[in-house]
Amino acid sequence: PRASLVRLGQPLVDRDRVVLPPFDGAEIELVIEGEEGFFLEPVLRFASERRLGPDASAEVPLRVLAQRSGQGRTVIDVARPPALVSSRLRIGTATPTFDRRVTVEDVRPDGTARPLGTGRIARAALPAGAGAAARSAVDVAPARGEHLRLAIDDGDSPPLDAVTVALAYDVPALLFALPAGTSESPSGVLRIGGGRAYALHYDVAALLRDAATASAGVADASQLPQARLGPLRRNPAFDAGPALAAVLRPGGKVEIDAWQWQRPVAIPDSPEGLVELHLGPEDLARALASRAERRIVDGSGRQWP
Predict the structure, then answer these.
(1) pLDDT at 161
(2) In which band, very low, low, confident or very high, does the pLDDT at 208 lie, cut at 50, 70 and 90?
(3) Is the dihedral of CA 269, 270, 273, 275 positive or negative?
């Protein structure tokens, strides 16, 4: 294949890779031509990538709820699928060349907004045959609101044309082994969610990182049979009670005349039994740094851990 090698110090324009088709020859001949009047002394590296599954990412288009432009900005409200909580927003447009900064916010039911991420989207229209350099994704944190709000800084440029927004996310693949010979069609159960489990460290996790096993075809996705997922349903045995139920007991009563200051605390409902309280400078300045002089006491005078 023919390709252009460019270095101008601009990420959207610089190109230093040549994509090769499949080949089985003994060697590769590389010819570099230029008009600069000096020779290059390149350092060559051969790079390849493999993936466990045929599709490592997916996209879900998001419905545009509202769009408005003015004062150098375009604001777009899009619906958020409740089943997807994070990853990247991919922004498409018919505008051929642009370079804009994007801010993404999570809009809550009360109208307040929480920042989820910022990024830069850009596209450079290059000469024919050179392809196009583009950056269209913005990394975002998990969202909990009803919809997302994108603010695109247009500056003095016209708004982007025909904007589309999609939520892009990585599709993980699980490599596992069930006992052979147990049945003609072995089956298992995929258990997910609940927030009660901890991360495990299995020995087979190293198979994809080990060069010896990878060369033997262990990591070759084309040689692995594909398992099929059944319908998603709730686990009737799941314990939905507070995770800290064993310690949700008050301690002994305290002598309240031993403390010089007090403040009321409004405690919201907590399914897991934990509540977070942020102390201000006025609280920290009145108590020892060792935290020995701080207590949470209920209406009956009992302290809580």
Answers:
(1) 93
(2) low
(3) negative
Question: Is the separation of the CB atoms in 187 and 180 below 8 Å?
Answer: no
pLDDT at 114 > cutoff 80: yes
pLDDT tier at 214, thresholds 50, 70, 90? low
Q: Could you tell me the maximum CA-CA distance found in the chain, to the nearest angstrom? A: 88
Beta strand segments in the chain, E: 57-61, 64-70, 73-79, 87-92, 98-107, 113-125, 132-135, 137-140, 147-153, 164-170
> Partners of 170 in the beta sheet?
57
C-alpha torsion sign, points 171, 117, 152, 109: positive
**CA-to-CA distance for 297 and 295, rounded, in angstroms?**
6
Q: For residue 158, give the DSSP letter.
A: P
Spatial CB neighbours of 220, under 8 Å, sequence gap ≥ 6: 50
- Distance from C-alpha of 298 to C-alpha of 305, rounded to nearest angstrom: 11
Q: Which tokens is 247 given?
A: 């310690």
Q: What is the pTM of this model?
A: 0.51
Given a cut of 60, is residue 54 above it in pLDDT?
no
Residue 164 predicted with pLDDT over 90: yes
Q: How many CA atoms lie within 13 A of 74 on its CB side?
A: 21
Strand partners, 106: 114, 148
Q: What span, in angstroms and rounded, lies between the C-alpha atoms of 66 and 75?
A: 8
Lowest mean pLDDT among 222-226, 247-251, 278-282: 222-226
pLDDT tens digit string along 165-207? 998 877 777 777 776 665 666 778 899 888 778 888 877 666 6
What CA–CA distance (Å, rounded) separates 185 from 293? 63
Residues 91 and 96: their CA atoms lie apart, in Å, by: 13
Report the alpha-carbon distance of residue 239 to residue 17 in Å, rounded: 53
Sign of the CA dihedral 38, 39, 44, 49? positive
